UniProtKB/TrEMBL annotation:
Organism of derivation: Reichenbachiella ulvae
Record-linked SUPFAM superfamilies: Acetyl-CoA synthetase-like
A Pfam family that the UniProt record links to this protein: AMP-binding
Protein name as annotated: AMP-binding protein
Coiled coil start-end: none
The organism's taxonomic lineage, starting at the top: Bacteria, Pseudomonadati, Bacteroidota, Cytophagia, Cytophagales
Ranges for domain AMP-dependent synthetase/ligase: 72-285
Length: 431
């Protein structure tokens, strides 16, 4: 099922977005104690917001705000909640979100649209290799969307390559939903078993949680490595629990298409002003139609840029480029400003480096101290190469240390965590 509005004129898309925005705003005005209070305090008159063009008159909503007043953001009684989920809490405390029946239907629609964007149909068999429990929204969303589409789902869950392989043998899935670094690891596991991933039934990988493109839409190292071992089309998708909406790439792979009936996007600078078109800034979203915990102008903390030039697929919707960094993760190291993602991109070039963690703390003077911890089985030659490459590509010389593989693994996936990380920010803990 192709969605007409995606191919509609810009004017029609704008009209649709405007209608969705106004009904979302009306719902919030009537039901959200938090926003009623917030707007009263800021002296904002709701009557002044006549269309989507006026959205800039509304104050933004920060993650800290939602964390601090979490329960007040809920606009329905607990009786109307059918499921509770939380955000992954990679920075700070996780946020709790209650979904109503309508929210679940909306999520199902969103994910169905997202899978269709990747050309997935009712004929596909989809193996979901992400967390399907632990209060996680994404896995469940994929499950709902895939079944609504009429595709078959295998709830493989996270990790356990043996079990993943068993599913491939048994059900011949055509699609993997996976964190790309896991798909890479799993591909290598198959090779180790004498199975060529290229000969399996998998034809597409829907990648979540990690970027596979740079800002020019060129494949990054992870992408290249994946393409070496798998014979698949790779699709990137970007979403978060708070927005409950995905930006998914079409076959052209030039950024994730916006779903106009579900979300509005702005790219803002530090003063909450729009950045010049095509520049990088903070992704700020207004997801439409959410009933349990509706948000207005929510600042995600993710840095990216928007593209509005025509996409060769024929859709006229805006596209969101790859996430280029996290706002809270900016590192100032000896006069240079950089993001952990840039260090990851460099380290991924050295195939001997199979594991590492980037650690940021404060030194005695309160300055950023940047450390990369590598496994102790690597010899000095490889450590020197990493140092040289970081210096050449990024002009930085982080402190390179070595530690046991067990230590690194425990830092990547700390106990109780469900989302692997490559970057640990210890600056807050020290302050
Ligand atoms: Zn497209």
């Amino acid at each position: 099922m192709e969605i007409e509005q995606d191919y509609s004129s810009l004017e029609n898309i704008k009209k649709l977005q405007n209608e969705q925005f106004l009904s979302h705003l009306t719902y919030i005005r009537e039901n959200s104690k938090y926003y009623q209070k917030k707007f009263a305090k800021s002296g904002l008159d709701w009557q002044n917001i006549k269309s989507l063009e006026d959205i800039h008159l509304l104050p933004v909503t920060t993650k800290e705000e939602v964390e601090m007043y979490n329960l007040e953001f809920q606009t329905v009684s607990n009786q109307d909640i059918i499921e509770y989920v939380t955000t992954s809490g990679t920075l700070g405390d996780p946020i709790s979100i209650g979904l109503t029946r309508e929210d679940q239907k909306r999520l199902e629609w969103n994910e169905r649209r997202s899978l269709e964007m990747c050309g997935i149909t009712a004929h596909d068999v989809i193996q979901i290799t992400t967390t399907l429990d632990k209060r996680f929204m994404a896995g469940m969303a994929y499950y709902l969307g895939a079944t609504a589409l009429g595709a078959a789902v295998i709830r493989s869950g996270i990790g356990d390559p043996d079990f993943q392989l068993d599913n491939i043998k048994r059900f011949k899935p055509t699609v993997l939903v996976a964190v790309p670094s896991f798909a890479y690891k799993f591909g290598n596991y198959l090779l180790g078993k004498g199975i060529d991933p290229k000969t399996t039934s998998i034809k597409k990988i829907v990648c979540i949680g990690e970027p596979i493109k740079d800002e020019e839409f060129e494949p990054n190292t992870l992408n290249e490595k994946l393409s070496e071992i798998w014979d698949v089309e790779l699709y990137s998708t970007y979403a978060s629990t708070e927005m409950a909406t995905a930006f998914t790439e079409c076959k052209e792979g030039k950024g994730g298409h916006l779903l106009p009936e579900l979300i509005h996007i702005e790219i803002l600078d530090e003063n909450n002003q729009p950045v010049p078109h095509g520049q990088v800034g903070e992704v700020t979203v207004t997801p439409f139609g959410i009933k349990g915990m509706p948000l207005l102008r929510f600042k995600t903390g993710d840095l990216a840029r928007v593209h509005s030039d025509a996409c060769s697929c024929g859709r006229n919707t805006l596209r969101l480029g790859p996430i280029e960094g996290r706002k809270g993760q900016m590192i100032k190291w000896k006069g240079t400003t950089l993001f952990p993602q840039q260090i990851e991109n460099v380290l991924n070039h050295i195939s001997e480096i199979d594991n590492y963690i980037i650690e940021l703390s404060l030194d005695d003077l309160g300055l950023d101290k940047l450390k990369v911890i590598l496994p102790d089985h690597l010899d000095q030659g490889i450590i020197d190469r990493a140092q040289r490459l970081l210096q050449q590509r990024l002009r930085v010389n982080p402190i390179l240390e070595q530690n046991t593989a067990a230590y690194i693994s425990s830092e990547i996936l700390p106990k109780g965590s469900r989302k692997p990380r490559r970057f640990v920010d210890k600056r807050e803990a020290i302050k």
